[in-house]
Amino acid sequence: MVKIEVDNISQDENQEVLKQETDTLTVTDSGSLELKEEPEELETKEVKEEEHGSGPQPMVEKDAVRNKIPFQNIPETDHQGTYKAHRNENPFSCLTCGKCLSRKQSLDRHMMTHTAEKPFSCITCGKGFIQKYSLTCHMRTHTDEKPFSCLACGKSFIQKNILTRHIKTHTCEKPFSCLTCGKGFVQKNKLIHHMRSHTGEKPFSCVTCGKCFFQKHSLTIHIKTHTGEKPFSCLTCGKGFLQKRSWTFHMRSHSGEKHFSCLTCGKHFIESSCLRKHMRTHTGEKPFSCVSCGRDFTHKYSLNCHMRIHTGEKPFTCATCGKAFIQKRNLTGHMRTHTGEKPFSCLTCGKGFLQKRSWTFHMRSHSGEKHFSCTICGKDFNQNSCLNQHMRTHTGEKPFACITCGKGFTQRCSLNSHMRTHTGEKPFSCIICGKGFSHKCSLSNHMRTHN
């Protein structure tokens, strides 16, 4: 006789009972679960019947009923989620948001998302979790334990589901495809996020400034810009970061660790995304196009900045003089003109620079390094932007046009200087006599009159 208790048993114990008794279960045509007959027990019962007779029939019927009742009543016990999951039933509804779930314990865990209850806490950092499994995975970030390893490349992971996603990068399997553009994705949630780029849906809104986002994760990061919270700090220089990912990449700048190498030129990168962007400089791929003028860009960020030229948006404003900029890095560089700070210095000649980009280009003037060559005349350049400007001398292209008189220019800076002839703006002033000039070179020439 097999005795199974159902009442007053925990979920884990129920799962263990089901696991141990899997081989003794059958599913009838009516959908109920019953025990299989086990030959060993029947043989023992037959021996007892030969020794003692058939025995009182009521006791045999009672034993048979006790064998069947626990599993026939599984849908009424804590196992009903597993049973009803196969029948696509979700009988447990959340009274707050209406979400339906197949198991009561799943509903209990879901309710914690509304109550903000997190019963499982990390003893190291104090972070709370709704599920014990999440705490277990989190603890591995402190112990650096990564029990799941990829057989193809040897890379290890904290969770099995992360390993499963990683395996697909080797097999190139992308089972989730966009019906609009055909792009494939490894994960379903990535497809859902991508679909919003077609629909324009931004379901997550900031309660402080009203800004909307495609993903909840992006909203969470944005909230920290209001609170000033930067939970990830560099132990070397003390710099704080909003995201752990940014902190990880920053730490490599101290260690000099660069895992990702370009097979074409051998250049190394801290991030795989940086390598992918770099590869486009070799392939000439420009996957991001402006819907207004048709101009193509290598990076999505460059497209976003370019779109502001059409919209006139300049979201970054100088608190000192009120000048507005399209990009944050332009504002950062501009602020140094007020403070006089030049944080990037040449180790060879000692010249200081406002921006790292300018310093990088200057360093090439000492090394004579010129990576970018014109395919028409063979002239070499130390900057890709200089090559692009040079190419326009061959093509005659003048992409920067004055909206007032229509005159075209090969460079944006030339257009900006020209616009001052219409506006009368003279941003360059002499510190001795106060005279204003439209161009910096004019100010430099004027300063010589004082010297």
Automatic annotation (TrEMBL):
<feature type="domain" description="C2H2-type">
    <location>
        <begin position="260"/>
        <end position="287"/>
    </location>
</feature>
<feature type="domain" description="C2H2-type">
    <location>
        <begin position="120"/>
        <end position="147"/>
    </location>
</feature>
<feature type="domain" description="C2H2-type">
    <location>
        <begin position="344"/>
        <end position="371"/>
    </location>
</feature>
<dbReference type="GO" id="GO:0005634">
    <property type="term" value="C:nucleus"/>
</dbReference>
<dbReference type="GO" id="GO:0042802">
    <property type="term" value="F:identical protein binding"/>
</dbReference>
<feature type="domain" description="C2H2-type">
    <location>
        <begin position="92"/>
        <end position="119"/>
    </location>
</feature>
<dbReference type="GO" id="GO:0000978">
    <property type="term" value="F:RNA polymerase II cis-regulatory region sequence-specific DNA binding"/>
</dbReference>
<feature type="domain" description="C2H2-type">
    <location>
        <begin position="204"/>
        <end position="231"/>
    </location>
</feature>
<comment type="similarity">
    <text>Belongs to the krueppel C2H2-type zinc-finger protein family.</text>
</comment>
<feature type="domain" description="C2H2-type">
    <location>
        <begin position="148"/>
        <end position="175"/>
    </location>
</feature>
<feature type="domain" description="C2H2-type">
    <location>
        <begin position="176"/>
        <end position="203"/>
    </location>
</feature>
<dbReference type="InterPro" id="IPR036236">
    <property type="entry name" value="Znf_C2H2_sf"/>
</dbReference>
<feature type="compositionally biased region" description="Basic and acidic residues">
    <location>
        <begin position="42"/>
        <end position="53"/>
    </location>
</feature>
<dbReference type="GO" id="GO:0008270">
    <property type="term" value="F:zinc ion binding"/>
</dbReference>
<feature type="domain" description="C2H2-type">
    <location>
        <begin position="400"/>
        <end position="427"/>
    </location>
</feature>
<feature type="domain" description="C2H2-type">
    <location>
        <begin position="288"/>
        <end position="315"/>
    </location>
</feature>
<dbReference type="GO" id="GO:0000981">
    <property type="term" value="F:DNA-binding transcription factor activity, RNA polymerase II-specific"/>
</dbReference>
<keyword id="KW-0862">Zinc</keyword>
<keyword id="KW-0479">Metal-binding</keyword>
<feature type="domain" description="C2H2-type">
    <location>
        <begin position="316"/>
        <end position="343"/>
    </location>
</feature>
<keyword id="KW-0863">Zinc-finger</keyword>
<feature type="domain" description="C2H2-type">
    <location>
        <begin position="372"/>
        <end position="399"/>
    </location>
</feature>
<dbReference type="Pfam" id="PF13894">
    <property type="entry name" value="zf-C2H2_4"/>
</dbReference>
<protein>
    <submittedName>
        <fullName>Oocyte zinc finger protein XlCOF6-like</fullName>
    </submittedName>
</protein>
<dbReference type="InterPro" id="IPR013087">
    <property type="entry name" value="Znf_C2H2_type"/>
</dbReference>
<keyword id="KW-0539">Nucleus</keyword>
<feature type="domain" description="C2H2-type">
    <location>
        <begin position="232"/>
        <end position="259"/>
    </location>
</feature>
<keyword id="KW-0238">DNA-binding</keyword>
<dbReference type="Pfam" id="PF00096">
    <property type="entry name" value="zf-C2H2"/>
</dbReference>
<keyword id="KW-0804">Transcription</keyword>
<feature type="domain" description="C2H2-type">
    <location>
        <begin position="428"/>
        <end position="451"/>
    </location>
</feature>
<comment type="function">
    <text>May be involved in transcriptional regulation.</text>
</comment>
<keyword id="KW-0677">Repeat</keyword>
<feature type="region of interest" description="Disordered">
    <location>
        <begin position="1"/>
        <end position="61"/>
    </location>
</feature>
<keyword id="KW-0805">Transcription regulation</keyword>
